[in-house]
Amino acid sequence: MHPQPQPQPQQHLAPEQGYASLDRTPHDDAVDDTVAATDLQNPSDALDFLAQVAERDAARSPGERPHEQTAGAGAHAHGNGHIPSQQPTIYPLLQTGQLSVEMVSTLLLRYHDKYHPYFPIANVDAMTPQRLWTTASDQKHLLTAMLTVASRDVQEWQQTHEACSAHMQDLIANLVYAGTGSVEAIEALLILSEWPPRQPRCPSIGRGEEDAAAWMLVGTAIRIGYLLGIDRTGFRTANDGNTDGLDRKRLAWAACYISDRQISVRLGKAFCLKPKQPWQDDYAAIFQANLDLTQLFSNAHDVLYATKDRSQQLHMGGEYVKYIDDFRVSLRIWHSTWGMLSCSAPLKASVTLCYEYLRLYINAFAYQATLNRLVAKAQAASPNGVLATSIALFADIASTPDARFIYEAIDAATSILSVFNSLDPLILRTMPLKLWLCVIYSGTFLYKARCTGVMGAEQTRRVKQMIHDAVDKLQKASTCANDVGDRYSRLLRLLWRKPPSRGDVSRTGESATQHAYAAGTSMPLQLGPGDMQQQMQNPASINAFSWLDLGAVGDFATTNNSLPSESLDGLDRFDDSSNGGFGSFDQGFTIPLQYVWNTASPYGVMF
Questions:
Q1: Please, which pLDDT band fits residue 233 given cuts at 50, 70 and 90?
Q2: CB count in 10 Å sphere of residue 496
Q3: Where would a tag sit more exposed on the chain, N or C end, judged by fewer CB atoms within 10 A?
């Protein structure tokens, strides 16, 4: 007789356990732990969690789920770590013969040497030619972006650039259409925002189109970042390991913040960008310097330029003085920390240009405030707001309360031109778009300062020479017609060709706009001799556009130069002895009257 098994006491299950706990496995415990640790704040978090559970369930051994594993073997081959043997992934541009392996290797090395130092967010492995097949399979967006950028500034590679750019457009369209993405896709979009591809059909004068494209690219990158949840990687926890994947996500999100000042996520300071050799640039320090500068720029915008109504209120009330003083102190602290940063000359110039532009951005607010108050005062003292004689609004600049701010704004603008003109055109070709636009903004501000009598005759001559040199640099840095440098050199050239009247900015009303535009359109009108003389002596429109609005600057510049050819003798001219680059500037260049500018122009955001 074998002993009968003794009956076990009945187990009573808690309601929340249910009967499923009778056959629990270690895998189920892992899922339950994930449930406890997951913070479900919205439906998107719930869907992400369900996707993670599904991936774990699919990764079970074949013995546990024989039927589902057989049916889904192809779909989850990569999920369980068993990758079937196959030929290396064929990159489309290689498959069609538009690129060769040697060309790809050359372009990757060129990107690493010429472009990566300015914006060091690309994964180092992706720039290694020996890992081309892996990169083409796992980081196709980043690879295509680097090839597009590296081929944009060499005349012999224009067809290659167009092919890479077209393929990049397809990849971006798929990203947006599918609503998915990856960290390498974020890196690719941010890189393209720094060096926008050349557009085959674009106006001959630049007015911010590249900036608008960059804004869209950055916006897409930020959306993908939110979808991936990398915005939460800025806050380290005790359970976070110092993994390369986490550091890459944090770096990508930090780059999103730098590219778009509207992102307000607190970031940590530990990045994986330390130099490998003593003679290499410290990319982490450069990145941190730009990050600190971006925070200052964001604060300055929110305090001074948040809305037009708020800016106007500050202009008339005068409260901006204490804000500008505080920002100037912050700028001095930044400069004491990063001003002596040791790095290569091009990187040093890029950081300096951003710093000088921020100095201009802050102090120019006081110039515009002073100008608006003087205009309002002059209008109040004249019948119907029209003066019979011109007034030199800034005839005695030293007596104005904001003289120190105005002097510093002019100094910052001229410093931008000086730094830009000191660079070799070959170096300028590889610099990000925002550094080119620094020159355009500073040139526009100096033009307005010249129009209002801020600068004396000697200083005006020096500035005109600097503008001439900047135009020459922009042209020499261009590799073809309608390149970025060519288009914006035309904008500067047209803007400075018209001799402004010194100070009659207070004339407003109908005469400021009737002779410039047709009612309800942006189309210049044909002017008679009397009207032309009145417009030349009445620069009221100078105070009608912001130096930060490239669209309005383009309208103003082309309107002033759409005059009959016989009246060009009275316009400012530059010495055309230098015709470097792809060709000299056409002195008789005018914009056809049927050409209408797009009135939607980007604001002057540089960071």
A1: confident
A2: 24
A3: N
The number of angstroms, rounded, from the C-alpha of 268 to the middle of its chain's C-alpha atoms is: 22
- Cα–Cα dist 450/344, whole Å: 35
506 and 379 Cβ atoms separated by less than 8 Å:
yes
CA distance 406 to 51: 58
Per-residue model confidence as pLDDT tens digits over 435-470: 888 898 999 999 988 888 888 888 889 999 999 999
Query: What is the rounded average pLDDT of the residues 486-492?
Result: 87
Measured on CA atoms in the order 51, 57, 60, 62, is the torsion positive or negative? negative
Cα separation, 134 vs 141, whole angstroms = 13
Amino acid at 84: P
Q: Is the dihedral of CA 263, 267, 269, 274 positive or negative?
A: negative
Go through 199-236 and write b for each residue having 16 or more CB atoms within 10 A of its CB, e for each that does not. eeeebebbbbbbbbbbbebbbbbbbbbeebebbebeee
Contacts for 326 with CB less than 8 Å, ≥ 6 apart? none
Contact in structure between 512 and 544 (CB atoms under 8 Å): yes
| pLDDT value, residue 175 | 86
3-state DSSP assignment of residue 79: coil
The mean predicted confidence, pLDDT, of the chain is: 70
Residue whose token pair is 């904008």: 491
Residues 6+ positions from 470 with CB-CB distance below 8 Å: 417, 420, 421, 439, 443, 489, 492
Q: Tell me the one-letter amino acid at 480.
A: C
The amino acid present at 106, given as its one-letter code, is T
Report how far residue 275's alpha carbon sits from residue 280's, in angstroms, rounded to the nearest whole number: 6
How far is 436 from 104, CA to CA, in rounded Å? Answer: 27
Q: Across the chain, which distance is largest between two alpha carbons, in Å?
A: 128
Q: Which residue has the tokens 């546990």?
A: 64
Tell which phi-psi region holds residue 144, choosing left (phi > 0), alpha (psi between -120 and 50) or beta: alpha
Structure confidence by residue, pLDDT tens digits, 280-294: 667 778 888 988 998
